[in-house]
Write a structure and sequence with these properties.
Number of strands: 0
Radius of gyration: 27 Å
Order of helices and strands: HHHHHHHHHHHHHHHHHHHHH
Distance between the termini: 54 Å
CATH architecture of the largest domain: Up-down Bundle
CATH topology of the largest domain: Na+/H+ antiporter like fold
Mean pLDDT: 86
Low-confidence stretches: none
Structural class: mainly alpha
């Protein structure tokens, strides 16, 4: 394929991603669902771009930055606090899914042995939380539920891929590894990966903290996930766990590592990158249909489709069966062993967690990465059928569960129950109290003619305290209604100022550089007022 054809295909995919994302926003539907359906429909056109999903591209190019970004935004405190519940999902549920699917495959799917069932179960055990968490955040689902879903997806890929590696080895090498060998492999996999990830994270933190150039700092952060992933894979450990460990560490240290400009800019860079990568992979999932159908040949698409739907139902049911006793057992351990004062989760919230086991590109990439031949040269049994079944599970879980999740959340009365964040309010209040205490002390030791400056600054901080509390008891003389009016007037003033500088630029009285600088300042002010309103 020529370079111009590659450019044209990439450009076409990027246009499709932007158009489908805009369509998803218009209909208030999570964009992963629209991307997959859109890719499926596009693949039916004769002149549609033919892009075959390459597992190496997924695992080595796409997965590391997505994992790093998710880990970077994850609170290390909350991750550590929820660790046992996460382990019950990422190890307990993965194992339960693998065994459950293997049992179903052996009994129901024609030509499937236990070993083949274990491979298929490992493939479909990995979850993708993007669609679920986007819905959960939009509808105001409790933060605890969102945290569990996001944190599960961070480690779930590693446990699922380890199970996939183990199950595939049973068929390819036709041997049964011993229990001690497997346990040692798992310990090494987890331990070495965490160590490598932390080493890379510490190195990135060291280099970034010595640099005061936002472009270079962000570039290093973009390199970090690939270094962590490749270093771990070179050591025959888990690139997934290593990248997650690196992202958690660097995210925890980013306030110290990054300069001010890097902190302001990096969020936009990473959000854009992760959006494009996620858009590509979900669109590519839909575009794989022609290749998947070509693989199964004349095996009876209708019958295989029925079996795929049945398998998808089994995968969904297995998660729902596990989730309630798993949540109960996790709560017992956290309360009695870990001494965490954790109330038993709302059964309705537990059901929502059970309903959000959507599958994504990791599952499909794992299926496509299955070897074509065994060690003795024979074809890998049922390879094309496994890829087809994986596609069915991804499509059903994404579309069926994704589209029904909003209605389910509303029906269970969980929409909009997240409420105000007490930790955020406490932090805002502490910031204002520290500022007022400092200003009052500085006013006492400063010359008398400077008092007016300190009084104005103290009054401003008291206004901020009122916005946090929603009261007017800080001696400013303004009511809550006054603050609402002030916010509305500020928006109008900012809009007028923005129109003014645009007019000056259009009249060639200022250049674009001046426009962007002043516009950036207005954006910061607008963001501050928006944050105050949310508080």
């Amino acid at each position: 394929m020529g370079i111009h054809n590659v450019e044209l295909i990439l450009l076409s995919l990027l246009v499709f991603v932007a158009a489908l994302a805009a369509l998803a926003k218009r209909f208030k539907t999570p964009y992963p669902i629209v991307m997959v359906v859109g890719g499926l429909l596009i693949s039916l056109f004769p002149r549609a771009p033919h892009v075959e999903l390459n597992p190496d591209v997924v695992f080595l190019v796409i997965l590391p930055p997505l994992l790093f970004s998710a880990a970077y935004l994850t609170s290390w405190r909350d991750f550590r606090y929820n660790l046992f519940s996460i382990a019950m999902l990422t190890f307990g549920l993965v194992g339960f899914t693998v065994v459950g699917v293997a049992t179903f495959a052996h009994w129901i799917l024609p030509g499937f042995t236990w070993q083949m069932g274990l491979v298929l179960g490992a493939i479909v055990s990995t979850t993708d939380a993007i669609a679920a968490t986007s819905i959960a955040k939009r509808l105001g689902l409790p933060k605890r539920v969102i945290d569990i879903l996001e944190e599960e997806s961070l480690v779930n890929d590693a446990s699922g891929l380890f199970a996939f590696e183990f199950a595939t080895a049973l068929i390819v090498s036709e041997r049964t590894p011993g229990l001690l060998e497997d346990a040692g492999r798992l310990v090494y996999l987890v331990g070495a990966s965490i160590v490598i990830g932390l080493i890379v994270g510490k190195a990135v933190h060291f280099f970034v903290s010595k640099i005061d150039d936002s472009a270079i700092e962000i570039t290093i952060s973009l390199i970090a996930p690939f270094v962590a992933y490749l270093a771990a894979e070179s050591a025959h450990s888990s690139g997934v766990i290593s990248t997650v460990a690196c992202g958690l560490y660097f995210g925890h240290k980013s306030s110290i590592s990054f300069s001010r400009d890097a902190r302001l800019t990096s969020g936009a860079v990473w959000r854009t990158l992760t959006f494009i990568l996620n858009g590509f992979v979900f669109l590519l999932i839909g575009l794989q249909l022609p290749y998947i159908l070509a693989g199964i040949g004349e095996m009876g698409v209708g019958y295989l489709l029925w079996l795929g739907l049945l398998l998808s139902g089994v995968v969904i049911l297995l998660r729902l069966i596990w989730i309630f006793p798993g949540a109960w057992f996790s709560n017992i351990v956290r309360r009695r062993v870990l001494h965490q004062h954790e109330a038993f989760p709302n059964p309705r919230a537990v059901f929502v967690v059970g309903w959000t086991g959507m599958r994504g590109v990791v599952a499909l990439a794992a299926a496509i990465s299955l070897p074509e031949y065994l060690s003795d040269g024979k074809p890998f049994p049922q390879r094309d059928v496994m890829i087809f079944f994986t596609f069915c599970v991804i499509f059903v879980t994404l579309v069926l569960q994704g589209l029904t999740l909003p209605a389910l959340i509303r029906k269970l009365g969980l929409a909009g129950v997240a409420g105000r964040n007490p930790e955020e309010e406490r932090a805002r209040r502490a910031m204002v109290e520290a500022a007022i205490a400092y200003l009052e002390h500085a006013r006492e030791i400063s010359p008398q003619d400077s008092a007016i400056v300190f009084d104005e600054l103290i009054r401003f901080q008291r206004h901020r305290m009122n916005l946090i509390d929603g009261t007017s008891d800080e001696g400013t003389g303004l009511t809550v209604g006054h603050y609402d009016q002030m916010r509305d007037l500020s928006k109008h003033v900012q809009a007028l100022q923005r129109a003014t500088i645009l007019h000056l630029r259009n009249e060639n009285q200022i250049n674009d550089e001046v426009l962007r600088k002043l516009e950036y300042e207005l954006d910061l002010v607008e963001a501050r007022f928006s944050a105050s309103g949310n508080a």
